[in-house]
């Protein structure tokens, strides 16, 4: 609450005072707080040394700050301005609360619609990505299946062409001792079997 160039705490609170107060009130409050928070006495009262040293330093700073009339007047003006501003804001809020509430409700409804649409868009994107991935996997599976079928066809074709037809000859005849007519008959029989 204090001016930032001097102190960063409320000097009245540290000394237990209220605005306005006299110089004698400041002196009395300083002596009382200094006795309570002095590091040597605070340890006996169960207060840690670090806390008491910090608070004792703040008490001294608050005392020096409030004893300076110009700093105290500036600070008192700042506090009064903040108090007036707060009262003004509360009054303004009370007088225009119905109108403002209507605007706030409309804004809140719009924000909810926006968030709902945003969630729906995210869900549709997720399902779109799922559908896209599913389609990709189907294509990949079909390509793999086509590859397997092609390999099987090639394998079957290779075994068909690589097998030499065997002539069905009686046991006592050899292919070398067969007549041309008999050879033609065997060829025709084999070709018909294919």
Automatic annotation (TrEMBL):
User: Which keywords does this chain's UniProt record carry?
Assistant: Chaperone, Cytoplasm, Nucleus
Task: Give the signal sequence positions.
Answer: none
Q: Does the keyword Chaperone apply?
A: yes
Location in the cell reads:
Cytoplasm; Nucleus
Q: Which residues form the J domain?
A: 10-79
* Principal cellular location given in the protein's record: cytoplasm
Q: Does the keyword Chaperone apply?
A: yes
- Per the UniProt record, the source organism is Bursaphelenchus xylophilus (Pinewood nematode worm)
- Name assigned to this protein: (pine wood nematode) hypothetical protein
């Amino acid at each position: 609450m204090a001016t930032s160039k001097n102190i960063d705490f409320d000097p009245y609170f540290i000394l237990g005072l209220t605005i306005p107060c006299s110089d004698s009130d400041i002196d009395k409050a300083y002596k009382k707080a200094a006795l309570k928070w002095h590091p040597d006495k605070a340890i006996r009262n169960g207060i840690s040394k670090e806390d008491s040293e910090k608070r004792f330093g703040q008490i001294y700073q608050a005392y020096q700050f409030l004893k300076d009339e110009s700093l105290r007047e500036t600070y008192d003006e700042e506090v009064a301005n903040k108090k007036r501003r707060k009262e003004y804001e509360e009054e303004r809020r009370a007088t225009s609360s119905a109108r403002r509430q209507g605007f706030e409700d409309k804004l809140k409804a719009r924000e909810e619609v926006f968030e709902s649409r945003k969630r729906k868009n995210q869900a549709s994107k997720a399902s779109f990505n799922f559908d896209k991935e599913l389609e990709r996997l189907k294509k990949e599976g079909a390509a793999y299946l086509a590859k397997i079928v092609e390999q099987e066809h090639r394998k079957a074709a290779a075994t068909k062409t690589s097998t030499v037809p065997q002539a069905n000859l009686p046991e006592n005849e050899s292919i070398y001792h067969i007549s041309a007519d008999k050879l033609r008959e065997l060829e025709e029989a084999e070709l018909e079997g294919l």
